[in-house]
Amino acid sequence: MEKIKRTFGFIFNHPLGKRHPLKSIFRFLLWQLQTAVSPTKLMVKVYLQGVKFYARKGLTGITGNIYSGLHEFDDMAFLLHFLREQDTFFDVGANVGSYTLLASGVCGSASITLEPVPSTFALLQKNIELNKLNDRVSPINSGVGSTQGTLTFSSDGDTTNHVIAADETNKSDNIKVPIITIDSLLTKAHPALIKIDVEGYETEVLKGMTETLSSSALKAIIIELNGSGERYGFDDQKIHELLLSHGFNAYVYDPFKRVLTLLEKSGDFNTIYCRDIDFISDRLKNAPGIKIMGETI
Predict the structure, then answer these.
(1) Which position among 25, 110, 139, 278 has the lowest Cβ density within 10 Å, counted as fewest Cβ atoms?
(2) How many structural domains comprise the chain?
(3) Do residues 83 and 63 share a domain?
């Protein structure tokens, strides 16, 4: 019951859910019925503009898109309006590929996509193959940090899998995962946009992308800053200050108006950091419309 309450709270607070509550609730109830009949079965669901994904009960990193259109609406819409075919997108902490499918499946951009947990990575690969995106997406089964090496991750938390902190009790499901740096990927491409969602390990990821932050190609970063870095002794404010020092500023995006609004500090969840704001604003304004939940944004 508590999960259902949270889901309805999500729907009624979601920008599209609020505008289309009956449609969102119908989608949610239909999904509950489907998963009640086949709780472990992978089912193909339509995302948008012909892109599809595999989903099953418990995969919260992708199933939110079923009844809301775009789970993380503002940030995903920013990606859809910003990216172009000539761009490269880095998806750091990709889970099963919600952002990668939008970047490469809808926008046509190249993606370099990193997911550390092997079971989650296997579903990411299935989603890439389902949409025939092998020529646009380079999936890497690795974590990301400040140096190359190996770290211990949880593996049973779906979207909350993370690097095990020093004071966490060792669990049987913990796994060893290879770690690379973002800078090591620059031999493949320089990204225009990076999404970083690593459950509090963002500080270490940024330490390993000094060259990337200095690249003029990089215009925007979508990064999760919700205080979870405290488990490692990290401070989100220091990340904010680091990005400011590289010419980025924090913004919130209104997809309906296609307007970025400057923030004085990072947001409570994902924050969009941008530089070369005139370039970005022009792209946002001139991007083709995307049809979601019966309306075009």
Answers:
(1) 278
(2) 2
(3) no
Residues 128 and 79 in one domain: yes
Final residue before a domain boundary, out of 46, 71, 96: 71
Percent of the chain's residues with pLDDT above 90 = 76
**Rounded CA separation 136/88 (Å):** 9
78 and 177 inside one domain: yes
In the block, residue with structure tokens 């995969």: 59
Residues 146 and 104 in one domain: yes
Residue 44's domain comprises: 1-71
Residue where a domain stops, chosen among 47, 71, 95: 71
pLDDT in tens, 39-97: 899 999 999 999 999 999 888 889 889 989 999 999 999 999 999 999 999 999 999 99
* Same domain flag for 104 and 17: no
Measured distance CA(38)–CA(60) in Å, rounded: 16
DSSP output for 235-272: -HHHHHHHHHHTT-EEEEEETTTTEEEE-SS--SSEEE
Model confidence band, residue 115 (pLDDT cutoffs 50, 70, 90): very high
- Cα distance between residue 111 and residue 96, in whole Å: 14
The answer for residues whose C-beta is within 8 angstroms of residue 173's C-beta and 6 or more apart is 154, 155, 156
Chain mean position to CA 151: 21
Element (H, E) at 19: helix 15-19
pLDDT in tens, 226-249: 988 899 889 999 999 999 999 999
